[in-house]
């Protein structure tokens, strides 16, 4: 067994821990909602103040925040960029309290007295392990106030840090005895209020001590891990060990395998490797709400033995079970190189992408950026070049040799030129490739650079690739009509796009916010989805009936009720309220 450094834990506590210290009264052991605190991207400030998080209250007033590391400031800024700007609206339009549980699910939880007893029993059960449990106020706030989105925060009653499946079973059994909600928390990078406890409080199960790489099977290209392993750490570890394999799902920095499985994540690599819903997760060990432990499958690369029960938990957002171990597939590490190319418009760029992807050349990422993004990149001033301010594609090629990369680029240049592309720039060396990709990665900073002092709402919709030009065109028209400055970035190979809607005042914020709603509606009307990769949580559940239809939602609810009849696991998330029968 390969044991990771304990220092990770310290880093988490000092880094990700920074809690919102807004105007809401601090709460004690029983949990409770705080004054809604919303915030959005303000990368300039995040950098300038050495990691103090900038936030706004619901009224848009800036609130000074606790210091955090500069890495975290970066992650925060990026996270804010992609945070679900629609979340607060939909949460509050769904229910009077955003994380109230759906009324046709069980809502009869234990009393405050019961919760106190549960905490006592947990303390007793883990008395041999002084790091296993916390009711420390900072720790509660860290687990109950979203770092990256603007959902109203709610603190849990207690945080428990298991180290094994057996620990998780113990916690679940106590939760069941006292009818206490249980909310898994891993990397804490999700963007739609996913890990916020319900307003009555509950047990936050923080999986970060379950961060062991258990077995590496290089010959089989798979690895068995505990769920608290971070994808970036895993890839670093494999590289350090000289194992030429990697895990290609790439959501937010700091995301863990358990959280990634549970949100059905993906990232820029999805065009080549697919999402968490492809077979990257071979099996999962899961603690069910009954306390029973199941393993969904064995380690074989494929199996037709019955339902795909692993998939049941992918995207379930911790509402059906707590994942305590996973076996994941790995992909061979290949060489990469980067190119940037400009187009007359988004339509042409997208048409070129369709042909590029269908040509079968080795492409790992295809990122669409609009003219405003390029303008922001120039204004931001960190790029070694001045770019034409035109709709563009960033392409990351992959291949076994430099020659293969060169050939891929030549084919790509030929294809893109058919669609009116100009200025095809292929990196001449590793440094240039890194510089080009860094411009893309600086999306938040360069976007915000366009309007000094601005903040931003983000969106996360996805449509069939061929419908993307229409979505982007209509969106840009709409934003222009409402005077909203924005940049657009799309994982265009998948039809997924994020708009960074900039605002400075509460009035502008409200206008941007409404525009975000229209983007979601437009995406669904184009046979798309309200969330391409971030998941539902609290923020998107109001859209699910429209997107999936009543029958599908009813099936999801039936499964939830069968597995978790007491509605203890992450209540209030994912499943939308039933429409009123009036
Ligand atoms: C800067 C930034 C960039 C991002 N970019 C992307 C992107 O490109 N693509 C993308 O998909 N996402 C992106 N995200 C969102 C985020 O990284 C993903 O949603 C990620 O999968 C969440 O993982 P996590 O470990 O942080 O989970 P958490 O936030 O801790 O939890 C997410 C959900 O999973 C549940 N959960 C956690 N652990 C378990 C477990 N062991 N068992 C059962 N349930 C569990 C939680 O209860 C919660 O509902 C980004 C976020 C940030 C901040």
TrEMBL record:
<keyword id="KW-0809">Transit peptide</keyword>
<dbReference type="InterPro" id="IPR036318">
    <property type="entry name" value="FAD-bd_PCMH-like_sf"/>
</dbReference>
<dbReference type="GO" id="GO:0071949">
    <property type="term" value="F:FAD binding"/>
</dbReference>
<dbReference type="GO" id="GO:0004458">
    <property type="term" value="F:D-lactate dehydrogenase (cytochrome) activity"/>
</dbReference>
<dbReference type="GO" id="GO:1903457">
    <property type="term" value="P:lactate catabolic process"/>
</dbReference>
<feature type="domain" description="FAD-binding PCMH-type">
    <location>
        <begin position="152"/>
        <end position="333"/>
    </location>
</feature>
<keyword id="KW-0285">Flavoprotein</keyword>
<feature type="region of interest" description="Disordered">
    <location>
        <begin position="45"/>
        <end position="68"/>
    </location>
</feature>
<dbReference type="GO" id="GO:0005739">
    <property type="term" value="C:mitochondrion"/>
</dbReference>
<keyword id="KW-0560">Oxidoreductase</keyword>
<keyword id="KW-0274">FAD</keyword>
<dbReference type="Pfam" id="PF02913">
    <property type="entry name" value="FAD-oxidase_C"/>
</dbReference>
<dbReference type="InterPro" id="IPR016164">
    <property type="entry name" value="FAD-linked_Oxase-like_C"/>
</dbReference>
<comment type="similarity">
    <text>Belongs to the FAD-binding oxidoreductase/transferase type 4 family.</text>
</comment>
<dbReference type="InterPro" id="IPR016171">
    <property type="entry name" value="Vanillyl_alc_oxidase_C-sub2"/>
</dbReference>
<dbReference type="GO" id="GO:0008720">
    <property type="term" value="F:D-lactate dehydrogenase (NAD+) activity"/>
</dbReference>
<dbReference type="InterPro" id="IPR006094">
    <property type="entry name" value="Oxid_FAD_bind_N"/>
</dbReference>
<protein>
    <recommendedName>
        <fullName>D-lactate dehydrogenase (cytochrome)</fullName>
        <ecNumber>1.1.2.4</ecNumber>
    </recommendedName>
</protein>
<keyword id="KW-0496">Mitochondrion</keyword>
<dbReference type="InterPro" id="IPR004113">
    <property type="entry name" value="FAD-bd_oxidored_4_C"/>
</dbReference>
<dbReference type="InterPro" id="IPR016166">
    <property type="entry name" value="FAD-bd_PCMH"/>
</dbReference>
<dbReference type="InterPro" id="IPR016169">
    <property type="entry name" value="FAD-bd_PCMH_sub2"/>
</dbReference>
<dbReference type="Pfam" id="PF01565">
    <property type="entry name" value="FAD_binding_4"/>
</dbReference>
